[in-house]
Structure formats: structure tokens, C-alpha cells
């Protein structure tokens, strides 16, 4: 028996042992008596720096798939989003609103205050402002502990920022499409839209939109300190399918034609890989497949 074979057996044993404990894990996010976002909201997008038209369409299709009436083929992005209804009842409908294409007007290093300024460029109410930074833009703390963030303008209009990590830290912010920086090395998965950076952004946008609607102003659902909360999806970090354990995303679907991994389908025949969301009905992180 060669060493590869031994290693495979060892990994398999680890997997078998970890599987039941991971799935049985119970988790409680506490509701802090504040506002959640319920009803209809538009998602305004500010593109900072260069994004190709294809990259933009992948992200717009994803956001519009969250409530798409025209696409509900299982497993769907829409059914993933539906779990947010379990949080204090009632649904949240999101769809893409205005878009701004912003060239490199502030240069290639953005700080927190500038991020706030970019998010404040939209003046609509009942909106979530989404600021997306291109792969060649550095943002304060990007890659050193965060892949994006959500916050609000004057405690009123929520905003989300996510960066494209492709050239800066794909092992951290585009895992499992790139090998991780630390820990067990399972082979990277093939990104469902063929773009490691953008498919990684989808994971973070999904995480932060769910965190925004269930904890928009720090009075919603979370565990831990309000400055470093574990929210609807961030509490389930690293879990994409059943049997996940640190370094292994879990069992997901594979597209026979392209080899791409996915677990959710959306508009325009797109496929996405979405992280598990905590389900208040069962107190567990629920992967879609
Ligand atoms: C929510 O409100 C209830 C009733 O006023 C109170 O007992 C509880 O401690 C509050 N929970 C939090 C997390 O603030
Ligand atoms: C952005 O893309 C355009 C068109 O492809 C290119 O000319 C320009 O140099 C790019 N800007 C930067 C800062 O990379």
C-alpha cells in the first residue's frame, strides 16, 4: 500500500469520526429584541474598480435569484434564502436596484471612512447598498481577518462591502475554490461560474446579505459580542454540504459537464455554491443539499 492510499484511508477515518459530531452540533443565535429587515428592499450596487460585464452579470443574477419567481428548480437559491423567514417570521424580498460604475476615483487603497462614503452614494430608503471592490483594490483589514463587512449609514440604511480576493487572498476569501492558507489541504473545488474571485465573492455576499437582514443594526440575531458577532451564516462558516469539517466543505453537487461544484441554482441557468445557514427552527446549520 503506498502512502497516498494510506493517507486516503486515514482521511476517510477522520471523516467518519467527525461526521456525526459536526451534524449533531447545536447552536443558538440569540435575538436581541431589535429590528430585522422584512418586506421588500432593493439592493443598490456600487462597482469600485474594474469588473467585467460577465462578472457583473454573475453577481446581479445571484442577487436576483434570491427571490426569483421564474427560477425555483431545486436546489434553488430561493430555497436557501427562504430560511431567513424563520427569523421572527415574515419574508424579505431583495432585488437589484440602481448600479454605479465607479472608476478608481479614490485610488487603489480604500479605508473604512471611504467605504462609508461610497456606500452613502445611494439615497434610497428601503435599500441595502452593496459596495464591491475589484481584485486590485486593497481595503483596510481586507484579507487580514475579513473578506467583507456589513454596517449601516447612521443606523438607518444598511450597507455591505465585499472585495474580490482573487489576487490578494483567495485561500482565505475564496475557499473552497482555492487551497486554504492553513489547515488540512483538500483539493480545491472547481468554481461554478469559472471565476474563483467572483464565485468567492458570491459566498461572502450571501453571508453578509443574510447577516444584514437578520441583524441589520446589531439588535437582531447573533451570538457573541456585538462587535464581532456570529450571524445567520457566519456562525456556520466553512459548511457547504453534509459531513463538513474544518478543511472539508462537505458533500455538494458536481456538474458532470464542467466538473464545477455547486449546491444552488438560479436565474439564467446559473449555479452557485452557498454556505449553510443557521435554521432557528432546528438550531442547526442547514446546508442546502
Ligand atoms: C428582550 O426583551 C425581553 C423582555 O423585555 C428581555 O427579558 C430580554 O432580556 C431582552 N433580550 C435581549 C437579548 O436584550
Ligand atoms: C480597467 O479596465 C480598462 C479596460 O479594460 C483598462 O484600460 C484599464 O487600464 C483598467 N484600469 C486599471 C486601473 O486596471
Automatic annotation (TrEMBL):
Compartment list: Secreted, Extracellular space, Apoplast
Keyword Disulfide bond: no
Name of this protein: Protein EXORDIUM-like 2
Lineage: Eukaryota, Viridiplantae, Streptophyta, Embryophyta, Tracheophyta
Natural source organism: Vigna angularis var. angularis
Pfam families: Phi_1
GO CC terms in record: apoplast
InterPro entries: EXORDIUM-like (IPR006766)
Family note: Belongs to the EXORDIUM family.
Signal peptide: 1-24
Amino acid at each position: 500500500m503506498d502512502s497516498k492510499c494510506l493517507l486516503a484511508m486515514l482521511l476517510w477515518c477522520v471523516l467518519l469520526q467527525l461526521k456525526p459530531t459536526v451534524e449533531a452540533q447545536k447552536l443558538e443565535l440569540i435575538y436581541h429584541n431589535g429590528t430585522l429587515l422584512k418586506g421588500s428592499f432593493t439592493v443598490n450596487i456600487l462597482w469600485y474598480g474594474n469588473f467585467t460585464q460577465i462578472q457583473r452579470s454573475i453577481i446581479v443574477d445571484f442577487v436576483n435569484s434570491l427571490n426569483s419567481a421564474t427560477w425555483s428548480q431545486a436546489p434553488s437559491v430561493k430555497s436557501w434564502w427562504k430560511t431567513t423567514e424563520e427569523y421572527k417570521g415574515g419574508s424579505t424580498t431583495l432585488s437589484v436596484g440602481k448600479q454605479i460604475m465607479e472608476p478608481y476615483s479614490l485610488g487603489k487603497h480604500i479605508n473604512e471612512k471611504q467605504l462609508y462614503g461610497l456606500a452613502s452614494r445611494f439615497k434610497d430608503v428601503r435599500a441595502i447598498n452593496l459596495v464591491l471592490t475589484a481584485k486590485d483594490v486593497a481595503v483596510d483589514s481586507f484579507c487580514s481577518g475579513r473578506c467583507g463587512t456589513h454596517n449601516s449609514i447612521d443606523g438607518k440604511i444598511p450597507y455591505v462591502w465585499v472585495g474580490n480576493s482573487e489576487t490578494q487572498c483567495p485561500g482565505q476569501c475564496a475557499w473552497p475554490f482555492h487551497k486554504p492558507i492553513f489547515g488540512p489541504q483538500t483539493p480545491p473545488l472547481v468554481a461554478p461560474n469559472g471565476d474563483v474571485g467572483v464565485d468567492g465573492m458570491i459566498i461572502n455576499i450571501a453571508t453578509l446579505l443574510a447577516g444584514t437582514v437578520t441583524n441589520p443594526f446589531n439588535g437582531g440575531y447573533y451570538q457573541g459580542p456585538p462587535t464581532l458577532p456570529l450571524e445567520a451564516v457566519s456562525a456556520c462558516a466553512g459548511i457547504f454540504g453534509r459531513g463538513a469539517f474544518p478543511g472539508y466543505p462537505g458533500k455538494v453537487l458536481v456538474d458532470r459537464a464542467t466538473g464545477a461544484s455547486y449546491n444552488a441554482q438560479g436565474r439564467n441557468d446559473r449555479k452557485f455554491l452557498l454556505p449553510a445557514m443557521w435554521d432557528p427552527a432546528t438550531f442547526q446549520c442547514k446546508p442546502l443539499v
